[in-house]
Design goal:
By secondary structure, the protein is α+β, with helices and mostly antiparallel strands. The protein has helices spanning about 15-20, 25-40, 70-75, 95-105, 165-175, 180-185, 290-315, 320-340, 410-415, 455-470; strands at about 45-55, 55-60, 105-115, 120-125, 140-145, 150-160, 185-190, 195, 205-210, 215-225, 235-240, 245, 265-270, 415-420, 425-430. A hairpin with a 5-residue loop joins strand 14 (about 415-420) and strand 15. The longest helix has 27 residues, at about 290-315. The chain is built from ten helices and 15 strands.
């Protein structure tokens, strides 16, 4: 029987698919920063400087281990191989930094030197996205630009075709590396601007150190002020070796979508022993370590979650209160106009008055956006000031009929108030189009007069109160 040997092979073009393994340019830059953070030395702060330009991105890391020529070949240029161990370093798959460079641009140059070496070593690639073959580089020596005892790495990426906002990048870095930036173990700048995380505006804070998943889990949780700042996202932040992993979590509890009071709950927890996904976008949700930690922390924050759920059930939504104030103001102005007899006035009847006097202003302006003309007029020079006349089975409209104003209550009540052709107001019409001269509004008298002020006021107040209740304002009172 003949035996043959078959070998597993890999096409170098597979590495090109890893270039698209990032949601955006910021995630790719974070991957490069992760590699720099993994090079930290105990007791020595690491400085990372990022320079963002329209067509280039540069990262400079000083104070870490740096890289020697042998480390560049064995660790950096080796796809899929890494000596990093889980729980000790953020990266461990041997592809992140190289793929991040290909995601951002087509050209790069690397200069590196280990601590204790007075020389630096450089190589570059002008067509990195051409992955038809694996690369071979020639290292060139050059003078080291920092002290010999400091590790040094500089990566410059050219022909960048991704958009990076330096301000958003600075805010993202402050959030992702908040614990390391807070302790001073990491110093980061973007275009010479320091990255500084803002302090938490907490009303309560509870620190904890409990056992979960066979290890001690440390962190804190607390409450934001009521109402919470809109710029802060609630939830518990999960960190892996000082690096944020995924979006805020609720540890198995329902979030603010079901209990609005939970939008005040925030916290941070360090999970160095919980495995994470390749791009650090989340923890491994099926791992035994995470399931044990989630169950333990679920019980830990349960009393505070129940308290916030009770408080949120009785609290009035601030947006509902603002809407109530707006509706109350509209109602008050409408009732004042009604009492003065000017609610249904219009300039339609006065348009034909002689003497060259301007038509008196209608009360529409006093209600702000509650009144709008029937047609939008084009204010541009040479534009027509009125829309063309419409034809149909109802006949041609009278000249100037399209300029009839609507009641200022159209925005509040949703129905137009249209004067008759002789200028007599018809009241609140049931016809939403407002252009049927033979239809009289419900409750309108035969002589064309509108109901008395007390009946109309009651109808307005009843309708606005019903609309407010339908909008979720609860028992908020509307009084003029």
């Amino acid at each position: 029987m003949t035996h043959r040997v078959v070998r597993e092979r890999i096409d170098p073009r597979l590495t090109a698919s890893l270039f698209a393994n990032y949601r955006n340019a910021t995630d790719a830059i974070l991957e490069l920063v992760d590699n720099a953070v993994d090079s930290r030395l105990p007791g020595r702060p690491l400085r990372v400087d990022l320079t963002i330009r329209p067509e280039s991105i540069a990262l400079l890391a000083v104070g870490g281990t740096g890289m020697s020529p042998s480390e560049l070949e064995r660790d950096y240029l080796r796809w899929g191989g890494s000596r990093k161990r889980a729980g000790e370093r953020i990266g461990r798959y041997g592809q992140g930094g190289k793929a991040a460079i290909g995601h951002l641009g087509n050209r790069f140059a690397v200069v590196a030197s280990p601590g204790g070496d007075d020389r630096a070593y450089e190589f570059e690639d002008d067509a990195y996205r051409d992955r038809s073959r694996l690369r071979t580089y020639e290292l060139r020596e050059r003078a080291k630009p920092v002290a010999a005892d400091l590790g040094y790495v500089r990566i410059e990426i050219g022909e960048v075709d991704r958009t990076v906002d330096p301000r958003r990048l600075r805010a993202r870095l402050a959030e992702v590396y908040r614990p390391l930036l807070g302790t001073g173990d990491l110093i980061v700048s973007v275009n010479r601007g320091p990255v500084t995380p803002a302090p938490w505006p907490l009303e309560e804070r509870r620190d904890f150190n409990v056992r979960g998943g066979g290890r001690m889990v440390a962190g804190w949780y607390g409450l934001l002020p009521d109402p919470p700042p809109p710029s802060l996202e609630p939830g518990i932040r999960l960190y892996h070796l000082g690096r944020l992993v995924g979006p805020p979590d609720w540890l198995g509890h329902p979030g603010p979508a079901l209990h609005p009071g939970l939008n005040r709950l925030v916290g941070e927890v360090e999970l160095s022993h919980v495995p994470v996904t390749m791009n650090k976008t989340d923890v491994d949700r099926d791992s035994a370590e995470w399931l044990a930690v989630e169950a333990r922390l679920h019980r830990l924050v349960a009393p505070l979650v129940r308290r916030l759920a009770r408080e949120g059930a009785t609290a009035v939504n601030p947006s509902a209160l603002r809407t109530a104030d707006q509706v109350r103001g509209i109602l008050a102005r409408a009732l004042r106009l009604l009492e003065s007899g000017r609610l249904f006035e219009s300039d339609a009847g006065s348009a034909g008055t002689g003497g060259g006097r301007a038509a008196p202003a209608t009360p529409a302006a006093s209600l702000g956006n509650g009144s709008r003309s029937r047609h939008r007029r084009d204010r541009r020079p040479g534009a027509r000031s009125a829309p063309p006349e419409r034809h149909g089975h109802r006949g041609r409209r009278a000249a100037g009929d399209h300029q009839r104003p609507l009641s200022p209550l159209r925005g509040a009540l949703g129905r137009p108030v249209v004067p008759a052709r002789d200028g007599t107001p018809r009241g609140v019409r049931d016809d939403p189009r407002g252009d049927r001269p033979g239809v009289r509004a419900q409750g309108e008298r035969a002589d064309g007069r509108v109901p008395g002020p007390h009946r109309t006021a009651a109808a307005i107040e009843s309708r606005v109160t019903a609309s407010a209740a339908a909008g979720g304002l609860g028992e908020v009172a509307f009084r003029a």
